[in-house]
Specification:
The chain is mainly alpha-helical. It has one domain. About 85% of the residues lie in helices and about 0% in strands. The protein is built from 3 helices and no strands.
């Protein structure tokens, strides 16, 4: 999904942050400066916005599907008469 993180470097860095094990993350944190911590926070915040956007899109899609099913039910009921 194209979203708030639009370049390969940032996407790879985000993937590291969300997939590494706890020991690796703790080691990275101990050897990381303030600028990198701020950058990591920005990546995670952008990823959070992407997830929110994806969730909203899924909700809209689900609602449209429900509407389509409701219309289909109405048509089938009218054909049964």
């Amino acid at each position: 999904m194209k979203g708030f993180i639009n370049n390969t470097r940032d996407r790879e860095n985000l993937e590291f942050l969300v997939t590494c094990d706890q020991a690796t993350l703790e080691d990275w944190f101990q050897h990381t400066g303030t600028d990198d911590l701020e950058y990591a926070w920005e990546l995670l915040a952008a990823y959070s916005r992407e997830l929110d956007e994806e969730a909203n899109e899924l909700l809209v899609e689900a609602e449209l599907t429900r509407s389509d099913l409701s219309l289909a039910e109405q048509i089938l009921k009218s054909l049964e008469r």
